[in-house]
Design goal:
Shape: globular
Largest sheet: 5 strands, mixed
Strand content: 25-35%
Order of helices and strands: HHEEEEHHEHH
Number of strands: 5
Radius of gyration: 13 Å
Distance between the termini: 23 Å
Number of helices: 6
């Protein structure tokens, strides 16, 4: 996710997001926490841990398995939310843009050579 928001990719993601904000992802069961800062087009970044001290605009909680399925397009974030696989707290307008974040992340993932 870090590579997806760095440089020109981050500016592109910010334009798609249109709404400036901060997002904290909590991945269970290990409670791994990642912070995504989309507050300005020139300052898009990802950090490990909650760098917003609990004051993020959007908090997303899901399992590692569900996050993998969303990144691999096996399930859409909206479907995961409706099925109770994804918990969201905060600004829903940011939550509706999760697909753009995942798409940007997907482009930066290494591909299998098998």
């Amino acid at each position: 996710m870090g590579e997806a928001v760095a440089g020109n990719g981050g500016k592109s993601l910010q334009r798609k997001f249109k709404t400036k904000g901060t997002v904290v992802f909590t991945i269970t069961p290990d409670d791994k926490v990642y912070s995504l800062d989309l507050s300005s087009p020139t300052n898009c970044k990802v950090a490990e841990g909650d760098v917003f001290d609990g004051k993020a605009d959007l908090k997303v909680i899901c399992s590692e398995e569900v996050m993998g399925k969303m990144i691999n397009k096996e399930i859409q974030p909206q479907q995961a939310f409706m099925k109770g696989m994804l918990k969201i707290k905060g600004k829903m307008n940011l939550a509706m843009k999760l697909t753009a974040v995942l798409a940007a992340t997907r482009k930066k993932l290494p591909t299998s050579k098998l």
